[in-house]
Amino acid sequence: MKIEVSGITEGQPIPEKFAFGVFNADDHMSFGPNRNPEVAWDKVPEGTRSFAIVMFDPDVPSVADDVNQEGKVVSRDLPRVDFFHWLLVDIPADVRRIPEGEDSNGVMPKGKPAGAGAIGLRGVNNYTQFLAGNPDMAGIYAGYDGPCPPWNDELLHHYHIELYALDVASLGLSGEFDGVAVREAMKGHILASARVTGTYTLNPDLR
Known about the structure:
Elements: E1 2-5, E2 21-24, E3 28-31, E4 39-42, E5 50-61, E6 80-92, E7 97-98, E8 115-116, E9 121-122, H1 127-130, E10 157-166, H2 179-186, E11 190-200
Antiparallel strand pairs: 1-4, 2-3, 4-7, 5-6, 5-10, 6-9, 8-9, 10-11
């Protein structure tokens, strides 16, 4: 199976139009255009009954105490965990493209609802937890929300956009399901997968 993510080249920086946060010299970070990239695919295996898209960042600090704190840095040696940015499942088997901006076009304070989207079923991404303590932003963030790594992180972040061809028409997920639930539901049903990885940072020393 072959995947193409328009505007994102393997191993290269992700364009700011796809980011939740963009570099701001005065305030470190401003909200970005937050558009989902176009994802297109072909060479689909026989027997495919649906697709799933998972985008995640494996470089997120496991401890957030120093994240975005003046006068501090997030050490590159800190253990890292997965942060899910995009969960889209039950994409019909005849679909071969998710258009740019179809699942996200701008930062939506308090998030976007889980459940049926324009194409497929949206899962809940980890901005739901990350923004839970911010009264202006707290809510359920489902579908796509793009990169916004800590501006004081010593580590360059990598963003994996993965496409899965599945042998079931539906993963049977509902409600506010998350990335862990998607991975568990896909077990034993993956016919093929493909991945594109881009990078992103808000740290001026790494840009």
